[in-house]
Amino acid sequence: DAGVIQSPRHEVTEMGQEVTLRCKPISGHNSLFWYRQTMMRGLELLIYFNNNVPIDDSGMPEDRFSAKMPNASFSTLKIQPSEPRDSAVYFCASARRGFSGANVLTFGAGSRLTVL
Amino acid sequence: GQQVMQIPQYQHVQEGEDFTTYCNSSTTLSNIQWYKQRPGGHPVFLIQLVKSGEVKKQKRLTFQFGEAKKNSSLHITATQTTDVGTYFCAVIYNQGGKLIFGQGTELSVKP
Known about the structure:
The structure holds two protein chains of two kinds. Chain A contains no helices and eleven strands. By secondary structure, chain A is mainly β. In chain A, strands 2, 4, 5, 6, 9, 10 and 11 form a seven-stranded mixed sheet that branches. In chain A, strands 1-3-8-7 form a four-stranded antiparallel sheet, with no helix packed on it. Chain A is globular and about 40 Å long.
């Protein structure tokens, strides 16, 4: 199993540019989460999907952020336009959701975004 | 808002000393999970606690879930340099599976 695959691993861009982060979850997992990690705010949940359907996007900072999951094997997180305060490590994680609702997450390696 | 408080934020210990991090919630939890993130790495699942008063051990790590299911702790006995990293607790706040992480406790171990 290749685990959760994220790309790109590193991205440096200029303010105002569009950024697209990609995630391939573990095959068979039916929940997918996007987190953002910064020193100041820790690990913040941005959005999560169950069976490709967005369940809770209350953590998405503002309209500049959008996420999609067109199928069970792919998700994107897009920032348009990007700003320096978006600089962070973005993690994708997937889980096989059980009956209790408990998700044991497997994280990808993360995408480190720097917006200049 | 939905959150879990984790303390301390940082802990510096001498190798061989013990270490404990705590998580507290104002609401009763259905379960709690613990993750470890090595420097420069990603969070990795350690364990999940479900039952009131539950205690689980993994070698030198001991995990406890409070009787009221509102708090939990992770204790490491005789720390080693390989224990370095940030330890997070994570809780679910609804049946939809929304998993919220504590602020984390960063552990450094001086050899």
